[in-house]
Amino acid sequence: MAYTIRKANTNDLKAIYDLVVELAVYENKPDAVTATIKDYENNFNAQVFQAIVAEYQGKVIGTCIYYITWSTWKGRMVYLEDFVVTENYREKGVGQLLFDQFLVEAKEMNATMVKWQVLDWNKPAIRFYEKNKAIIEKEWWNGKIIFN
Q: What digits encode the pLDDT tens for the residues 10-49?
């Protein structure tokens, strides 16, 4: 199958949003997505985040959503906020193509590292990341405060 991997544009935002909702369902948090498509549009246009998409026959089937951030220890880094391939296209090489392009993008942004989160029960994702020589940190805990 011939997949196209490319930078996302505003026309892709609805498909990206739908993939994020699909990811939330997969992660057993179906009601967790409170951002709206308008939030996506506003923040994509303001360059708060960037994305790449995978397409097959003109349909978006996967995405990586990311943004530049800062590590006080390592310098510029790129944070991978979401990485999802729709269920029917998993384990067909699409994820690897997306992840490889994400790493290219991060290097082009002069990042010293990339970082992301993975749920401890998501064994397929952990295996994927370990196959790609990722360090899976188990000693750092997440903290957050939600304002809505």
A: 999 999 999 999 999 999 998 999 999 999 999 999 999 9
**Domain presence at residue 26:** yes
CA-nearest of 108, 77, 86, 93 to 7 is 108
- Mark whether 129 is an active-site residue: yes
All residues at 6 or more sequence positions from 98 whose CB lies less than 8 Å from its CB, including other chains: 5, 52, 54, 62, 63, 64, 83, 85
Residue 144 lies in a domain: no
Helix (H, G, I), strand (E, B) or coil at 81: strand
Contact of 114 with 106, CB cutoff 8 Å: yes
CB 80, CB 113: distance < 8 Å:
no
DSSP annotation of 31 reads T
Q: Which of 3, 56, 67, 129 is catalytic?
A: 129
Domain of 124 in residue numbering reads as: 4-131
- What distance in Å separates the CA atoms of residue 13 and residue 51, rounded to the nearest whole number? 9
Using DSSP bridges, classify how beta strands 113-115 and 4-7 pair: parallel, antiparallel or unpaired. unpaired
* Residues found in the chain: 148
